[in-house]
User: What shape does this take?
Amino acid sequence: MKPESLVRLDFFLVSAAKDLLASHGVDLEEAGFRAEGIEEPYASTIGFTAQGHRGVLVLTASRSLAVQSLPSSLRAGEIPEALIADWTGELSNQILGRIKNHFHDAGIEIALSTPTVFAGKELRHLALASPITRTILLKGQGSLLLEFQADFDEDFEIPEGGAGQGEAPAEGEVHFF
Assistant: This one.
């Protein structure tokens, strides 16, 4: 993949995460292209596929970020771990959905799987070698680590500008799994 396409991909990842969390009142800033431990982590993985490419987004969020980004109607009283886990899965689903819309705008269609969520201490993603790997850490009111791995066709590039067919789906609809 050419450097211009990697820049577009990085933009897709960062803007999808920052925009989604800002819509829930959580401001984050990019803290670099690196991995580091996240306190009280909740992690979710969600795959995507299309003709000629496939991949996965792994999201690791601190408990504090997950709680602060919950819709206000769900933040009353003691928040059960199951709700935080569901919400972490929903965050990964919505972030990858926003990335899907960016791809759509570039004329590339992908399909998403459903997320799988994990919680534990000192969670680490032991990623296998992948042709495209991007790791982005965002910090602010908590921490969010995005790991994007993809296996694209050899000549795959992300074109600049809107070659998309029709309108992309609306963003922000919540579906707990």
